[in-house]
Design brief:
Layout lengths: L5 E7 L3 H15 L11 E7 L6 H10 L4 E5 L6 H11 L4 E4 L11 H6 L7 E5 L13 H14 L13 E4 H4 L12 H8 L7 E5 L14 H18 L4 H22 L12
Parallel strand pairs: 1-2, 1-4, 2-3, 5-7
Antiparallel strand pairs: 4-6, 5-6
Helix pairs in contact: 1-2, 5-9, 8-9
Length: 277
Amino acid sequence: MSGIHYSVVVPAYRENGNLRPLVTRIFGALSQAGSPVSPHEVEVIVVDDNSRDGSVETVDDLRREGYNVRIIVRTTERGLSSAVVRGFREAQGDNMLCMDADLQHPPEYVPAMLASMSPTKQFALGTRYAKGVAIDEGWPLYRRVISNGARLLALPLTSASDPMSGFFGIRKETFLKARNLNSDGFKIALDLLVKCNIPAKAIAEVPFSFGVRAEGESKLTGKVMIRYLEQLAELYWYRHSGLVIFLAIFLFVLFVFFAQTLLSWYGGFDDQSQGRY
């Protein structure tokens, strides 16, 4: 029987500069005396969308140095959500965690996130909306407005406080129950919360503060925001029906108008090469 009980899945595209500090910090945190999870029980899976930026070589070097990390290079698929789903399907652990490659999800929180999952806590959620957490500290105003607006639009779908954080875990048994997952959607955590019908009592929320991107570029673009709105529309239809959908559409239109205006002010409404995630 495999000794791996936890899998950390990291979707990546052109994130080679962040992979070494990410992996070493994850295993460094797990190796601390007070860690509730042993590093020998954990694997890290990088799901890379054919970046061709040296990521494969970096992961190979880390493996030779003794870190339990491997990389899956996708050549025919693209997108954040489908990368997470691929990683979860290939994970050995019964407890699976998703985190960004850009270090904005600090690796020092990984032990607590992994340990928070159990047979009664099927979903772990890193939340920025807990007492004492500096919410989106260092972000420009327009990013904070967009983040909070996206969160408010998701409130009718789940009781989770921060389904937009992207730092989340799920038990494999729960993940395998999901049907009709939207692998093209932007926020796979929100899709899983809705499609797996996870009740509030089964969610373990772990407070965390966003870190600062060290390398690479932000993937937030106008195209990404439109994809999120399309995903919301599908989830509203899945969860609700009838007149509720009209209210959702009205809110979508308002949000698109407001977000597009903000992004045009800051020069962010750009659908060029970085706009995949």
